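Re: duplicated header lines in exported structure tokens

Our pipeline writes sequence and tokens for each protein into one text file. With two proteins the header for the second block appears twice in some exports. Here is an export where it did not happen, for reference. First protein block:
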Amino acid sequence: MDPTELLPLLLFPLLWVAILVVIALVGGWSLLARDHRAVARPAEVQRFVSGRFGLLMNYNHCLVVAAADEGLFLGVLLPFRPGHPDLLVPWSEVRVLEERAGLVRPWTHLELGPSHVRVWLAGAVGVDAARRARR
């Protein structure tokens, strides 16, 4: 087998990781990870949640989210983890900016942490996060 035939097999994982790291940097996930890395995942999480970080970075059906007692937990599904450590933002650093009733599901706009990263979360978990953040 010619070694150049293996090149795409070697380059794809490197490109995949590089793209995910850039997405984390541009969207603000990396900013939150500086101060809010989670030690463990909560027992009950919602998988396949959609959301948006910043203005451009869409996370369609790949977020893992929980409105836990300690704060808002955010993670991503396994194939998307490079550059995306699990996060736990305490409720004292979660600010509700807006809630919208979408055509299919509600959307909640939040501002997280001292770096003021803006996040949209879809569905009931976003509504639950807004309720807990307002306490």
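Second protein block, exported in the same file:
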Amino acid sequence: MTETTDPTPSEPAQASATPAAETVMFGADWCGDCRRAKLVFDRAGVNYRYVDLVQDPAAADVAKDISGRTNIPVILYPDQSHQVEPSNSDLQRKIDELGLARG
């Protein structure tokens, strides 16, 4: 299941979770969808910070606060939108939309 949300005035700002110009992926190495999302980002040259929820279990609460769910990966973008378990095409569409690809 893929969830993509765009920020709305009623949503609280997630500034405490990430600086404005940073993409953050919350995931775990045992998660196939997380490994796949990392591969898509790496191949596109996306600059992102990976938060391993196994190494930093408290960060799972941050990811849940962002998405309202416990599914991973949770990806928070610079525009404060987020995706949960996105498909490759959803990831690429967001990369293109925000101009995150390098090279």
